[in-house]
């Protein structure tokens, strides 16, 4: 029996839907519901190719386990705010709270505000998750850096005048004596423009890039009309980094990224020029780890070293390079990535046998204070060099990391000095 016109049209529509269903299903498989605990404010599906994966400890949870990256940023912001008034996290800096959210010591405090929508579990970021790549080069760290440099060159004008150093926004934690040039570990310290990464703006704040400098020192340096020629000559003395295999062989996969490794190469980067200029003036292009004496090549762009640099007012050992910061004597020291990560052995304090963990420090950059003094593990670490009595009560501690690197007056005997900076021989591996 011949089909009516309406029946034929219905058949054609049905066939059309069938032939397109595979394509639509292929697209839909990337889009699922956002599991933001307070309800997704974006009111749209999550593309798992650009999302953040979380894990609920409730095995019966029926939530998707994925959040929009924007929702996840808000999720982390709420956790950081919660940590500000919680236990030992109250004494942490903003950066320390952010870095410790998904570590054991941070999550043990924060899990209460990570409740899942299922009502029976708590969420935790899946640090091992690798989202499907939209392009082959999406996860390639080296291509990311090359792309940034190409964009930067494309945006440069024919004549580049390097501006003199200007004041930048500071936090209340900033020291007037140590106002710039460092990248802080997890503690309160000055901040500056952050490395541009492919992550969201709030995620970028995880790194308090304290790459301001110490004021007038580089103001004079940058105002020099011969700066560009001098900088070019300085850079020619150092190696060019071919790849990032030295990091990939030591760091876990999830840490080989611009968040844990300083990658951005800024035109007026005072910290980089400070390090390279001082090393160049001493006719050296290497640095030695103050802990294991490993010889480390120094590179012309970030990451500067397979480890990190820091400044200290006391010469920890003969490998430290004496430098001047606003007329004050300082020493430029370095720690290798192996000692920072505790590979193969953890660094321990000889005074109390506690482990020193340097894995929270950003690699390839420089801090403006002694990173060993910044986190004293026992009262002996803050003992007066003259009378042996503590100059700091560790139950209260100092407000900022850099304060431990300042000269202090002993409240017991009145002797002033860098009491919290102990010889490097007080550590062992």
UniProtKB/TrEMBL annotation:
Residues 1-24, 130-202 are annotated as: Disordered. Residues 164-184 have a biased composition (Low complexity). Residues 34-129 form the Headcase N-terminal domain. Residues 1-11 have a biased composition (Basic residues). Residues 236-424 form the Headcase middle domain. InterPro entries: Headcase (IPR026066), Headcase_mid (IPR031947), HECA_N (IPR054537). Signal peptide: none annotated. This is Headcase protein-like protein.
């Amino acid at each position: 029996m011949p089909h009516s016109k309406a029946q034929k049209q219905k058949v054609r529509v049905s066939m059309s839907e069938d032939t397109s269903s595979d394509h639509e299903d292929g697209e839909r498989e990337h889009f699922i519901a956002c599991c933001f605990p307070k309800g997704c404010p974006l009111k749209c599906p999550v593309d798992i190719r650009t999302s953040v994966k979380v894990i609920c400890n409730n095995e019966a949870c029926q939530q998707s386990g994925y959040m929009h990256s924007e929702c996840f940023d808000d999720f982390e912001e709420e956790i950081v705010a919660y940590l500000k008034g919680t236990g030992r996290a109250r004494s942490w800096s903003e950066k320390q709270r952010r870095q410790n959210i998904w570590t054991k010591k941070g999550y043990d405090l924060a899990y209460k505000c990570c409740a899942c929508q299922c009502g029976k579990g708590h969420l935790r970021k899946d640090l091992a998750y690798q989202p499907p790549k939209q392009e082959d080069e999406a996860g390639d760290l080296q291509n990311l850096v090359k792309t940034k440099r190409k964009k930067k060159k494309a945006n440069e004008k024919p004549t580049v005048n390097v501006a003199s150093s200007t004041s930048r926004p500071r936090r209340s934690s900033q020291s007037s004596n140590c106002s710039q040039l460092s990248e802080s570990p997890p503690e309160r310290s000055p901040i500056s423009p952050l490395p541009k990464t492919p992550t969201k703006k709030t995620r970028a704040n995880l790194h308090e890039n304290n790459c301001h400098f110490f004021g007038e020192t580089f103001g004079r340096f940058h105002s020099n009309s011969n700066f560009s020629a001098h900088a070019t000559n300085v850079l020619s003395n150092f190696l060019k980094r071919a790849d990032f295999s030295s990091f990939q062989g030591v760091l876990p996969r999830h840490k080989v990224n611009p968040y844990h490794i300083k990658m951005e190469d800024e035109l007026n980067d005072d910290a980089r020029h400070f390090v390279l200029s001082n090393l160049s003036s001493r006719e050296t292009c290497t640095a030695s780890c103050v802990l294991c004496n490993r010889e480390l090549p120094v590179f012309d762009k970030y990451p500067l070293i397979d480890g990190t640099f820091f400044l200290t007012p006391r010469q920890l050992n003969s490998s430290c390079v004496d430098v001047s910061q606003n007329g004050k004597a300082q020493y430029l020291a370095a720690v290798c990535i192996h000692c920072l990560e505790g590979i193969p052995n953890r660094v321990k304090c000889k005074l109390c046998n506690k482990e020193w963990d340097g894995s929270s420090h950003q690699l390839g950059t420089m801090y403006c204070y002694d990173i060993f003094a910044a986190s004293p593990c026992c009262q002996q670490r803050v003992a007066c060099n003259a009378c042996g009595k503590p100059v700091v009560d560790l139950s209260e501690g100092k407000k900022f990391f850099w304060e431990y690197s300042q000269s202090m007056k002993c409240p017991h005997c009145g002797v002033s000095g860098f009491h919290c900076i102990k010889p490097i021989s007080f550590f062992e591996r």
